């Protein structure tokens, strides 16, 4: 499992960055990006996104 940012939905609001307690999210070129080394999969960023752009996905 990992966090996936849907780049078609992300508007770069940065709301997810505010709630991430591990500093795992940042903006790159106006879109959210996840540092998977830091992410502990707590899921806090998922409901924080006003554009429904973040969700868990299974690792392939
Ligand atoms: S799941 Fe938690 S640790 Fe991972 S990016 Fe989202 S808020 Fe940060």
Q: What do you see in this structure?
A:
This protein is an alpha+beta fold and 60 residues long. It has one domain: Alpha-Beta Plaits (2-Layer Sandwich). Strands 1-4 form a two-stranded antiparallel ribbon. It has a two-stranded antiparallel ribbon with strand order 2-3. The longest helix is centred in the first third of the chain and has 5 residues. The relative contact order is 0.38. The mean pLDDT is 97. The structure holds iron/sulfur cluster. Iron/sulfur cluster binds next to loops.
Question: Topology, please?
Answer:
Layout: E1 2-5, H1 15-19, E2 25-28, E3 31-34, H2 45-48, E4 54-57
Antiparallel strand pairs: 1-4, 2-3
The protein binds iron/sulfur cluster.
Brief overview:
This protein is α+β, with helices and mostly antiparallel strands and 60 residues long. The protein has helices at residues 15-19, 45-48, and strands at residues 2-5, 25-28, 31-34, 54-57. It has a single domain, classed as 2-Layer Sandwich (Alpha-Beta Plaits), CATH 3.30.70.
> In which order are the strands of the major sheet placed?
1-4
SSE class: alpha+beta
Q: What is the count of structural domains?
A: 1
Write the element-wise H/E pattern from the N-terminal end onward: EHEEHE
In CATH, the topology is named Alpha-Beta Plaits
> Over all CA atoms, what is the radius of gyration?
10 Å
Oligomer, anyone?
single chain
Strand residue content = 25-35%
Shape: globular
Distance between the termini: 9 Å
> What kind of sheet is the major sheet?
2 strands, antiparallel
């Amino acid at each position: 499992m990992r966090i996936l940012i849907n780049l078609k939905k992300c508007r770069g609001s940065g709301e997810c960055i505010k709630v991430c307690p591990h500093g795992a999210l940042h903006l790159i070129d106006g879109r959210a990006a996840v540092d998977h080394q830091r992410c502990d999969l707590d899921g806090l960023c998922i409901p924080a996104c006003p554009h429904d752009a973040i969700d868990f996905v299974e690792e392939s």
